[in-house]
Specification:
Length: 317
């Protein structure tokens, strides 16, 4: 057990803490990057882009919290024995999927960010907190015989207990379709903020923090006018995500109600209901998925064609 002060990784654009833990070592960009993904299952290996593959693997990450009661003799050295096990769950993740990024003309940090975007996209499409605990430049299936193996933490633990998500052919098709638009849209400040906040929501410890993050993300993407912002946001979401005229009206009413719950959480300390947080995330997810499907961010309300109207026009054509 070693005494070292942890370093908080900052997001390069916002300066805010990020759930991703970047490596303290430099990975050779000429080598493959292997990321273990837990809470997800696949039936067979799939290539989703020329440099990106998802394949079956096995990687069980575990760490039990320990207690030392004697200080180290020197800084950054081990604590003297005895050590004691703490009655806590610790970290246990079993990954059965491996994300492989093949070499590109980029730096190691860019490669890690690329991997993070892929994992975040899968999380958004599945609507579930899948987790990527560790990564290496050696395939997990080859570690038993490889020499000089190094493994680093990729993401901080997520405190959600869920059954694994199965990535079927339909899900893979969506990943493949949205992979390139994602790279383009992340250059847009509003989409980037919304996408990062939606993904980081899974690490937030309380319902009010999750609620605030979700609606901040929605505002970053939709950019409502400052004048009567809640109603402006509700109108934009009604036009952008309603799959029918009635669904749009329902969206409008729910956005008004959910933003009121967000306001009560911020200004009065009232905890939102779990179902309100869940519905808020579902709305944000719909917004982001339409942007990814179309490869563009929503514009002003007069430029938005409702989905139900677009479907009717295509049917007539």
């Amino acid at each position: 057990m070693t005494d070292k002060k942890p370093k908080v990784q900052k997001h390069p654009k916002t300066g805010e803490p990020t759930a991703t833990v970047l490596s303290r070592s430099v990975i050779d960009p000429s080598r493959n990057l292997h990321v273990a993904i837990s809470r997800v299952e696949i039936e067979r290996d799939r290539i989703i882009a020329p440099e990106v593959e998802l394949r079956k693997t096995y990687a069980h990450a575990f760490a039990h919290p320990m207690l030392a009661t004697s200080p180290p003799v020197k800084e950054n050295t081990h604590h003297p024995a005895p050590w004691h096990a703490i009655a806590a769950p610790g970290v246990v993740e079993t990954a059965t999927v491996e994300l492989v990024l093949y070499p590109r003309e980029t730096s190691s940090v860019d490669c890690l960010e690329h991997a993070r975007n892929v994992v975040s996209l899968i999380r958004l499409l599945s609507g579930s907190p899948i987790h990527a605990p560790v990564y290496s430049d050696v395939a997990f299936s080859e570690m038993a015989t490889a020499k000089g193996v190094e493994v680093w933490q990729f993401e901080a633990p997520i405190d959600w207990a869920i059954p694994p998500v199965k990535l079927d052919d339909e899900m893979f098709a969506e990943i493949e379709t949205m992979f390139d638009p994602l790279q383009t849209l992340l250059r847009n400040e509003g989409f980037n903020s919304a996408f990062r906040l939606a993904d980081g929501m899974w690490w937030l410890p309380t319902l009010d923090a999750q609620m605030v993050a979700i609606w901040t993300a929605s505002e970053a993407l939709m950019k409502p006018d400052r004048n009567d912002m809640t109603k402006q946001l509700a109108r934009l979401i009604r036009a952008y995500s309603g799959v029918s005229r009635q669904d749009g009206e329902n969206c409008y009413q729910r956005v008004i109600s959910l933003c009121r719950a967000r306001g009560e959480a911020v200004h009065a300390g009232v905890q939102p209901r779990p179902q309100d947080v869940q519905e808020s995330y579902y709305i944000l997810r719909r917004l982001l998925l339409r942007a990814l499907a179309e490869g563009s961010v929503p514009g002003r309300i007069e430029t938005i064609t409702p989905l139900w109207q677009r479907a009717a026009e295509e049917g007539q054509g």
